[in-house]
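Subject: Sanity check before I submit

Could someone independently write out the structure tokens for this chain? I want to compare against mine line by line before I put it in a report. The sequence has 159 residues.
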Amino acid sequence: MRKTLTSPVEALTGSIRVLIAEDNQYLRKLIRNLLVNVGIKKIDEVGDGLAGFEAIKNLEPDIVIVDWELPLLSGSELVRIVRTPGMLARRSVPIIMFGASAERWRIAEAKRLGVDAYLTMPISAKTLHDRIVSILVKAGTSVAPGGDRDQDPNKLFMI
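---
Independent answer below. Compare away.
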């Protein structure tokens, strides 16, 4: 049998830590399964925006996947707090936001807040993987997970 070689991006994808902030347990499980199917093994989950902020602060994930609609602290409020100078040691953590609709105002607001990618439901494993890889490539594959990535979100925003 031949051993398959993995690219640096594939190797990095397998070593990153992803946080899912979604209040619907079924959707959390679905997103977790999508992540596992593309090789991501370190996955944490929270069910509301307040727990999301605490998890970002304490776990320092490499990428955050957040629902627009969250209890206690909405997805947009969570992103606003994370991107506020002085709130976190690493406010540039890449954020992928998703929602049920692709209304222009919502996409514009997500971009303005500093979201790296906005996806609409349903999300495919390929689309999610492509967005994660794009974010990692833009951050520089030589950057170790957990490192500081001061990146321009306007260059990474995708729909």
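---
OP: Matches mine. For the report I'm noting this point. Strands lie at 17-21, 42-46, 63-67, 95-99, 117-120.
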